[in-house]
Design a protein that fits this description.
- The chain is an alpha/beta fold and about 270 residues long.
- The protein has 2 domains: about 150 residues, D-Maltodextrin-Binding Protein, domain 2 (3-Layer(aba) Sandwich); about 90 residues, Periplasmic binding protein-like II (D-Maltodextrin-Binding Protein, domain 2).
- α4 crosses α6 and α8 crosses α9.
């Protein structure tokens, strides 16, 4: 496949959740970068349609997309244990569930939920779409939420006696980290351009870590989060590494998703220049 060299400006698809800010905050003022914002489940479509050059996609999209893709080893959205913002709420024990209403913003979380329920509770549930942003929402018997709304728009206290943090449940099942969001690009991306993208993202992440106090203060106010909650979340709930353990966790997730028939393929991890 002939490598495709990018034109200026560099087009990145991003999510504006709080957890992405340590990676992308500040990129919007760079002259050679154009950001396109969307929910995680929409970003893969933008990438497939050529509207962005790389995107912070739901990790399962690497398997579900029909387009040839590569993974960019840049700061990603993961956890080692509890993530705090991907949560299952239920009025009944998990081993009795037949249906879960799922926030459709993330493809990965929906598949992960099904893997965890099948592996841990032998339950194959019916998944139905759910929009928690609706005013005066009627909360269903079981619901999975992702992102900022778990903190700022969570269900009424006491409504759900049974709850599961999906990141924590994954770690208990496998002992491995989990990656909810990874940077994907088309397989025809020039390796030099891929290195450039990774370098820009690494640089911005390092800068934002140094200035984390300012970032947390600004973003927690904007999102109506308690500042101490936001600080703890970004410092321990979400992890941004993309190392060997994260790769092993990603491969294990893909293997289990394929074993349970939740994806039709199990592509090996492919990186630019490989």
């Amino acid at each position: 496949m002939e490598a495709k060299s990018l034109v200026q400006p560099l087009r990145l698809g991003v999510v504006r959740f709080l957890n992405t800010q340590p990676i992308i905050s500040g990129l919007e003022v760079c002259d050679d970068i154009c950001l396109t914002e969307a929910v995680p489940s929409r970003l893969i479509n933008l990438l497939e349609q050529g509207e962005v050059d790389a995107a912070l996609c739901s990790s399962i999209d690497y398997q579900q997309s029909t387009a040839p893709l590569v993974i960019l080893p840049a700061p990603s959205l993961g956890c080692i244990g509890a993530t705090k913002t991907v949560r299952l709420y239920s009025t009944m024990p998990f081993e009795t569930l037949d249906e879960v209403s799922c926030d459709s913003d993330s493809h990965t979380s929906v598949v992960l939920l099904q893997v965890l329920l099948r592996e841990g509770y032998a339950r194959q549930v019916n998944v139905v779409p759910f929009d928690a942003a609706v005013e005066n929402v009627e909360w269903p018997p079981a619901v999975m939420l992702i992102g900022d709304k778990v903190i700022s728009g969570s269900p009424p206290p006491g409504r759900y006696p049974y709850q599961m943090d999906l990141g924590e449940a994954w770690h208990e099942l496998t002992g491995l980290p989990f990656l909810f969001g990874i940077w994907l690009a088309g397989a025809d991306l020039d390796p030099d351009d891929a290195r450039r993208i990774v370098s820009i993202l690494d640089r911005q992440h390092r800068y934002n870590r140094v200035h984390s106090e300012t970032l947390v203060g600004r973003e927690s106010r904007a999102r109506n989060w308690p500042q101490d909650t936001a600080e703890e979340y970004l410092s321990s709930g979400i992890r941004y590494e993309f190392g060997q353990l994260q790769r092993e966790g990603l491969e294990r997730f893909f293997e289990l998703a394929a074993a349970h028939g939740l994806v039709e393929q199990c592509r090996p991890l492919c990186f630019p220049g490989a």
